[in-house]
């Protein structure tokens, strides 16, 4: 019998028979109830795991078959829906919920939910996406809530559609039906004719559309017309809703939200070229913007605030500087021409048809194109005349004879004025914008939402989509978002500092500060000292400077920080006027501005501190003078644009002078304070012609063929490449090109040794390669590689002359990445954790350096640490260090004594010059040439030309082969002129075996000499340039071939680099997926174009978009504006081809399984299975990874002392106890890192370590205690991970964070978490299903020392202990430590065999002991302690006296006042 008694029983219509007589009980159900044994199937394969969770609680252990996690149909989202299941609340419709026309015949009518609309639409055979939308609109027409529901859905739908339009063909086809040329059917006839005349080719397409329409049957034609007019009708419906909102009185917020959502929808349509191309004309024809500006909602200050902000954005995009048809950006001249054409067409219409406008018609354009002039000229006209003027311009349909207009005069006047008034250009608007945020922006929730942003409702923020209109649009959106994200961080700093200062109202009405802040000080005096005249053509001052005096009566270290403010550091000037009396407690839950009485915020930039004579103390190598007293005065630069706006407001409106009110100055941490420099860089970019390579332009904007920049489609791809030391052998080469035939040019197998030059079959851009005679190449030739082994010319007789060689056996995908990186074009490498991204990057750099010695490569990374890792590997390859340069801070962290900074390289060059000149002197002496030729690079050059070259040419003439005469081997050595110079080389220099070998040695010796003089010629400029600054600039611009910097440094120093004439040909970006989009783009433009074109030839981006994105602190910018999307991720989504590295060599294969499901075919390198460290078990642990369940400690799980500052004491103590346990077993502390997902827990764990073991030499501190986000890009052998949360999953729900967390460990990963919470999270299922397959209590083997001989997966010979909770583990470690110390003190001379091993019977190998009490199993621990301490004593790490010093063990959390054995604990504390 097969069935399911948890589903519906047999149908019994009569309720009495069904319930009273139990007639609905089946025999199957009765057998189950009686207790007949059943076989319960426990794995379903029908539904997504998330859907299964809705009913699997009703069954015993119902799980999912593997294909539910793996098949694409289950992993893919439901197109058009945000969730894969959802409960939709349905309110009463017209005051009615359910109805019952007949008994038990229940019905429910309401504002249609989406699913109801789709279900009903399908009953009417509405198949297309838009038919469903249209039906949904129809059924919600009469309900206010319905209209808002529709708009909310519609906007979410469109937003999802736009983001997916580029990615899904089906969606693109559906959207194209709605927003394409046929939608112009909604235009009025005159306007349609006018638009078709502007672009003649459209007329042909329009006629074709009409022909196709004529062939349709009536029903199809009407359906097509409905689709084409849908958006136009939607706009008209919106206008009717907008007009129904009153100017004052009560207002329906549903209508307001509807209007806001609608404007957001219009914005999304306008901000993408594929939709804007046709829609912008329809929007303009509807005059939506004019209707909105004249609406009552726009006049309501409170309710209409967000609406007006969105409307300003819409107005900006409707007039954006772009040609809608071609997509080309319009220059300022072209925009001026369009403006003049509009005015002159209006003047012609006025002259021909309206005598009352003759004055206007005959005036010059500049006299009549301002708003005031147009209102003055057109204001006196009647409504009918204004309508006629508009109809002549095809803005409104013409009036019939004798008919009056239906439009109000205000609307008609605004329509004409707004269309013809002069607009300030976007660049001018940008240049007049202050870069520092003010109080109006900082606390505007619509622009800078708080951290509590829920994701509901729209915001007046730009969005970073897949596509952008122009480069200007791209830069502008990034500029605005970066400015606002910086503003959010500034707001946090201001709120923190000002609240710490506790501003209160004094008894006399002034301000008194009851607290203090490290980052803020009260201002003693503030004076504006200079307002410079404006530059020509500008209306704001060129420079505004002020003096700020503060009293630094604070601790010395804080005083040093304030005195250490450097030039260009940004500070903020704040005015507070508190209304709360002295002593009022500050409440963080209440609005900040009202509590503190904050009035003004203005930014400033430090010029320097003033000395006692009032002069700015310049920065330099000399120490700063020590000033007397505590008063310090700083000269600061104010923002000229902001100053001009404030002064205008003061003069025109009588407002108070802001600059006489400041009473607080606040500084910020230097690392977080570079926003102004970055904003200036972006603004400078927008003021210059941004020249990106032609092959990149469309891809950056998101248009065209995404693979067009791949090397296979580049017209200048290179056929033959020298792979230098990439391959270790010919077999390695063959394995690296599967599917290719390898043809070696040399037949002798002994000569098949690297390095190799490879000639690849060349494919044309689109078709099959053709030979020169025009015939097509056969497929076999297209898969053949011509390999030419070659010998690197001898570089000299010294051991250091031998080139450094690569030792890594790259996989075939790594080789493909290296090959792509050497070719011109865009190369994108997706590198999962441990797949050798850095090794690939370094090999690409090395190969470019050797293949194209005249080219320069720029390396850009996200962090200094990644840059240093890259640099350390570059130094290990065959690259001359004089060509390496590292810019920015962080080079001091390089694990080398060499200094690769600018001045470090200058010093290297000068020292190297002296060294080479000494070599020239030695050579001169060996040749017996008189004089001082080694004085300068110039004299050395003459010496080489006239003395060295002449001797070498004479030597060559003597030893070269003459006629058919065989050469004499002895002549090569006997005639060699430099024997004495090479006397210090390994002897003999010449082997005397063959003429060819000895001649190669002789030529190598000459190459060595020639290289000396070549370098001296390069260093000659350093003799002529005297200052260190000039020398460093020359080094950067001319000498260095490989220049490395962080993305932040590139953004901050762009102007300086461009002014220096910095040039480069290739860019390699590491950690690309972690870099902000704008910080990825700026490095492309660190050089001026050559003849109007960029000289950039290659762009290599290496990253992993499955790991964490750039850090964006504000949730609204992160999610709503999509600011966390890196350029790398956008390129992947757009469809740019990638090389996916597919073999990892970092972690055990079992650990790799926890995250490899996120990648395509990620496997393991052979050494992961073979090396002993991967095959050996983790000493003291039964498993190599384990998820350990942590229950509440003292009734508390997670806690939140401050908002989003999550902590979990139980997990923190458990993690530290396991760390101490590992150290006691002998694990080196520096091979263990502790990670957590929250900053609060990080600080708590550090506190626990400080208390428990931080100063104990037997235990020590872990390598790092940090967050998962901070540890991205790093690794360690053993990771202890705390997930903290017990109430909600939190941000670990982001799969990218999970991937990072799971992939940091090489050998062991131990995760501490509330299992019941995380195992039910759908997003985490692939990893947690593997973690929960193992026991959820920690299994340890405490009698096993590190390192162990046990193989991974092998059952230990020692007894296994099961730890059930944190107090138990803490007790266990505590007693283990105490026994260890006591055993050591008892046996000071030598250690006897542990008595526990004699007294206790030998445990069975498979036995597992649960440690229930404190004393249980302690004898085994004593034995273990003795063994560990004996190991330590043997190694000399700790003597007995030192142990005696550190006997004291902090009280552990497992005990409390109720513990039965608390006395020993008190003794220890004493």
List the helices and strands and how they pair.
Blueprint: H1 15-20, H2 27-34, E1 43-44, H3 49-52, E2 63-64, H4 67-70, H5 72-75, E3 98-102, E4 105-108, H6 114-123, H7 129-139, H8 144-165, H9 169-178, H10 189-198, H11 200-215, H12 218-243, H13 253-270, H14 273-286, H15 288-293, H16 296-299, H17 305-318, H18 332-353, H19 358-362, H20 365-368, H21 371-378, H22 383-392, H23 409-420, H24 426-431, H25 439-442, H26 471-501, E5 503-505, E6 511-513, E7 520-531, E8 544-551, H27 556-563, E9 570-576, H28 592-596, E10 598-609, E11 631-638, H29 640-653, E12 664-667, H30 675-686, H31 694-701, E13 720-722, H32 730-736, E14 741-744, E15 756-759, H33 779-782, E16 784-789, H34 812-822, E17 825-830, H35 837-851, E18 857-861, H36 864-875, E19 884-886, H37 902-927, H38 937-959, H39 969-974, H40 995-1024, H41 1028-1039, E20 1042-1046, H42 1047-1052, H43 1054-1060, E21 1066-1069, H44 1077-1081, E22 1098-1103, H45 1115-1120, H46 1127-1134, E23 1139-1140, E24 1143-1144, H47 1149-1152, E25 1163-1164, H48 1167-1170, H49 1172-1175, E26 1185-1189, H50 1209-1225, E27 1232-1236, H51 1239-1252, E28 1264-1267, E29 1276-1282, ...
Helix pairs in contact: 6-7, 7-8, 8-13, 13-17, 21-23, 22-23, 26-30, 34-35, 35-36, 37-40, 37-41, 38-40, 50-51, 50-55, 55-57
């Amino acid at each position: 019998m097969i069935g399911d008694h948890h589903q519906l029983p047999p149908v019994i219509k009569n309720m009495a028979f069904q319930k009273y007589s139990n007639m609905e009980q089946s025999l199957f159900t009765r057998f189950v109830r009686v207790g007949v044994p059943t076989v319960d199937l426990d794995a379903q394969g029908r539904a997504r795991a998330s859907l299964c969770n809705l009913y699997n609680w009703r069954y015993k252990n119902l799980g999912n078959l593997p294909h539910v996690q793996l098949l694409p149909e289950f992993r893919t989202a439901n197109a058009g829906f945000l969730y894969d299941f959802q409960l939709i609340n349905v309110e009463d419709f017209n005051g009615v919920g359910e109805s019952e026309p007949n008994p038990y015949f229940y019905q429910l009518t309401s504002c249609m939910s989406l699913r109801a609309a789709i279900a009903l639409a399908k009953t009417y055979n509405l198949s297309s996406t838009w038919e469903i939308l249209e039906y949904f609109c129809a059924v919600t027409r009469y309900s206010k809530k319905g209209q808002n529901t529709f708009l909310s859905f519609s906007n979410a739908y469109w937003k999802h559609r736009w983001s997916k339009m580029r990615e899904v063909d089906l969606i693109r086809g559906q959207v194209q039906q709605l927003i394409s040329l046929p939608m112009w059917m909604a235009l009025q006839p005159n306007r349609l004719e006018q638009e078709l005349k502007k672009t003649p080719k459209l007329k042909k397409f329009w006629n074709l559309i009409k022909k196709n329409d004529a062939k349709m049957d009536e029903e199809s034609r009407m359906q097509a017309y409905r689709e084409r007019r849908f958006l136009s009708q939607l706009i008209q419906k919106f206008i009717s809703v907008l007009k129904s909102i009153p100017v004052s009185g009560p207002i329906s917020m549903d209508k307001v939200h509807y209007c806001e959502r609608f404007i957001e929808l219009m914005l999304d349509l306008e901000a993408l070229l594929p939709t804007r191309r046709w829609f912008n004309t329809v929007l303009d024809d509807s005059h939506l913007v004019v209707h909105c500006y004249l609406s009552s909602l726009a006049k309501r200050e409170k309710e209409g605030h967000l609406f007006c902000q969105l409307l300003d954005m819409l107005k900006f995009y409707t007039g954006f500087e772009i040609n809608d048809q071609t997509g080309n950006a319009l220059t300022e001249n072209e925009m001026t021409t369009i403006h003049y054409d509009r005015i002159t067409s209006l003047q012609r219409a006025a002259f021909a048809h309206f005598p009352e406008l003759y004055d206007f018609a005959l005036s010059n354009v500049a006299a009549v194109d301002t708003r005031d002039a147009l209102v003055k000229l057109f204001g006196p006209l009647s409504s009918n005349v204004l309508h006629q003027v508009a109809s002549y311009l095809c803005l409104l349909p013409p009036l019939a004879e004798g008919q009056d207009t239906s439009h109000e005069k205000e609307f008609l006047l605004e329509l004409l004025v707004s269309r013809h008034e002069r607009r300030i250009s976007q660049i001018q608007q940008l240049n007049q914008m202050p870069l520092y945020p003010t109080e109006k922006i900082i606390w505007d929730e619509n622009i800078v939402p708080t951290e509590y942003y829920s994701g509901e409702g729209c915001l007046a923020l730009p969005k970073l989509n897949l596509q952008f209109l122009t480069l200007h649009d791209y830069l502008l959106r990034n500029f605005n978002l970066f400015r606002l994200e910086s503003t959010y961080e500034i707001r946090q700093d201001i709120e923190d500092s000002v609240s710490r200062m506790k501003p209160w109202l004094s008894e006399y009405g002034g301000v008194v500060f009851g607290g203090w802040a490290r980052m803020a000080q009260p201002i003693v005096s503030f004076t504006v000292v200079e307002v410079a005249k404006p530059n020509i053509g500008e209306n704001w001052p060129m420079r505004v400077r002020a003096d700020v005096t503060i009293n630094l009566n604070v601790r010395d270290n804080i005083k040093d920080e304030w005195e250490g403010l450097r030039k260009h550091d940004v500070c903020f000037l704040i005015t507070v006027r508190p209304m709360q009396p002295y002593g009022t407690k500050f409440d963080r839950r209440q609005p900040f501005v009202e509590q503190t009485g904050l009035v003004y915020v203005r930014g400033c930039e430090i010029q320097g501190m003033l000395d006692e004579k009032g002069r700015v103390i310049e920065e330099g190598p000399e120490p700063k003078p020590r000033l007397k007293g505590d008063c310090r005065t700083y000269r600061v630069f104010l923002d000229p644009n902001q100053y001009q706006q404030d002064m205008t407001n003061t003069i025109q409106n009588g407002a108070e002078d802001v600059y006489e009110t400041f009473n607080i100055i606040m500084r910020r941490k230097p690392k977080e304070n570079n926003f102004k420099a970055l904003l200036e860089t972006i603004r400078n970019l927008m003021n210059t012609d941004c020249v990106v390579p032609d092959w990149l332009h469309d891809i950056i904007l998101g248009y065209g063929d995404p693979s067009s920049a791949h090397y296979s489609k580049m017209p200048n791809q290179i056929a033959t490449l020298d792979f230098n030391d990439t391959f270790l052998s010919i077999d390695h080469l063959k394995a690296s090109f599967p599917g290719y035939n390898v043809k070696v040019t040399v037949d002798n197998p002994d000569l098949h040794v690297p390095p190799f030059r490879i000639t690849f079959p060349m494919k044309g851009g689109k078709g099959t390669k053709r030979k020169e005679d025009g015939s097509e190449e056969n497929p076999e030739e297209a898969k053949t590689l011509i390999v030419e082994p070659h010998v690197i010319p001898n570089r000299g007789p010294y051991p250091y002359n031998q080139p450094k060689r690569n030792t890594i056996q790259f996989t075939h995908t790594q080789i493909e990445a290296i090959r792509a990186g050497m070719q011109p074009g865009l190369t994108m490498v997706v590198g999962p954790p441990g797949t050798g991204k850095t090794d690939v990057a370094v090999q690409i750099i090395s190969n470019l350096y050797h293949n194209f010695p005249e080219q320069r490569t720029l390396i850009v990374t996200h962090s200094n640490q990644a840059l240093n890792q890259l640099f350390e590997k570059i130094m290990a390859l065959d690259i001359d260090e004089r060509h390496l340069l590292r810019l920015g801070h962080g080079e001091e962290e390089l694990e080398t004594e060499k200094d690769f900074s600018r001045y470090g390289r200058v010093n290297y060059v000068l020292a190297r010059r002296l060294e080479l000149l000494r070599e020239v002197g030695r050579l001169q002496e060996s040749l017996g040439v008189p004089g001082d030729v080694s004085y300068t690079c110039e004299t050395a050059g003459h010496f080489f030309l006239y003395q060295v070259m002449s001797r070498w040419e004479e030597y060559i003439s003597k030893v070269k082969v003459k006629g058919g005469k065989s050469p004499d081997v002895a002549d090569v050595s006997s005639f060699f002129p430099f024997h004495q110079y090479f006397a210090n080389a390994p002897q003999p220099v010449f082997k005397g075996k063959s003429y060819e070998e000895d001649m190669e040695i002789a030529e190598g010796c000459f190459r060595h000499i020639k290289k000396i003089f070549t370098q001296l010629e390069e260093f000659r400029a350093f003799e002529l340039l005297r200052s260190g600054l000039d020398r460093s600039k020359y080094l950067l611009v001319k000498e260095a071939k490989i220049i490395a910097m962080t993305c932040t440094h590139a953004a901050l120093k762009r102007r300086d680099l461009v002014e220096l004439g910095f040039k480069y040909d290739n860019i390699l970006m590491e950690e690309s997926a972690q870099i902000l989009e704008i910080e990825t783009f700026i490095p492309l433009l660190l050089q001026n174009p050559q003849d109007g074109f960029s000289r950039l030839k290659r762009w290599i981006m290496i990253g992993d978009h499955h790991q964490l994105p750039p850090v964006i602190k504000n949730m609204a910018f992160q999610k709503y504006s999509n600011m966390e999307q890196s350029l790398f991720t956008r390129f992947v989504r757009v469809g740019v081809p990638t090389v996916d590295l597919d073999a990892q060599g970092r972690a055990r294969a079992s650990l790799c399984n926890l995250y490899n499901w996120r990648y395509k075919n990620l496997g393991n390198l052979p050494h992961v299975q073979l090396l002993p460290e991967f095959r050996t078990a983790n000493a003291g642990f039964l498993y190599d990874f384990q998820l350990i369940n942590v229950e509440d400690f003292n009734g508390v799980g997670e806690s939140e002392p401050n908002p989003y500052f999550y902590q979990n004491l139980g997990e923190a103590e458990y993690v530290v106890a396991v760390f101490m346990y590992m150290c006691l077993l002998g694990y080196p502390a520096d091979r263990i890192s502790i990670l957590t997902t929250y900053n609060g827990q990080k600080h708590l764990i550090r506190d626990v370590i400080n208390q428990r073991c931080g100063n104990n030499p037997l235990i020590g501190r872990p390598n790092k205690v940090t967050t998962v986000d901070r540890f991205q890009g790093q690794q360690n052998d053993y990771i202890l991970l705390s997930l903290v949360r017990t109430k909600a999953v939190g941000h670990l729900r982001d799969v990218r964070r999970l991937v990072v967390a799971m992939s940091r460990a090489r050998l062991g990963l131990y995760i501490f978490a509330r299992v019941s919470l995380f195992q039910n999270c759908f997003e985490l299922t692939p990893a947690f299903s593997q973690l929960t397959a193992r026991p959820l209590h920690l299994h340890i083997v405490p009698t096993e020392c590190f390192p162990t001989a046990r193989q991974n997966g092998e059952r230990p010979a020692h007894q296994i202990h099961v730890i059930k909770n944190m107090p138990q583990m803490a007790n266990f470690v505590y007693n283990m430590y105490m026994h260890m110390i006591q055993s050591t003190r008892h046996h000071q001379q030598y250690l006897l065999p542990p008595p526990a091993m004699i007294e206790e019977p030998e445990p069975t190998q498979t036995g597992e002991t649960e440690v229930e009490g404190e004393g249980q199993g302690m004898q085994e621990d004593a034995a273990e302690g003795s063994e560990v301490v004996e190991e330590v004593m043997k190694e000399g790490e700790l003597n007995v006296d030192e142990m005696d010093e550190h006997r004291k063990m902090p009280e552990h959390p497992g005990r409390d006042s109720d513990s039965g054995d608390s006395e020993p604990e008190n003794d220890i504390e004493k």
